[in-house]
Amino acid sequence: MSTVLSNFETWKHFLADRIEQAKKMGMSEDTISKLAFEVGSFLDEKVDPRNDEERVLKQLWDVGDEADKKTIARLMMKVAEQS
């Protein structure tokens, strides 16, 4: 995972690929969003930001409540899907 997280563009493409795979497996948008929230929580706890984009996301994640974090996760999904 460290290679994937070293570059924000690489991370977005990786995330987009995983979202596409989840959709092909028949997962709902809500389920994918919940998984994105769990990934965000894991990254927040276990991974130090490696670039400016990740640092901003971490700052937003850290100040947000659970609803905010779920919104961030959904927005990251949208960003990834547009890349």
UniProtKB/TrEMBL annotation:
Source species, domain of life: Bacteria
The protein's name: DUF3243 domain-containing protein
Organism from which the protein derives: Paenibacillus oryzae
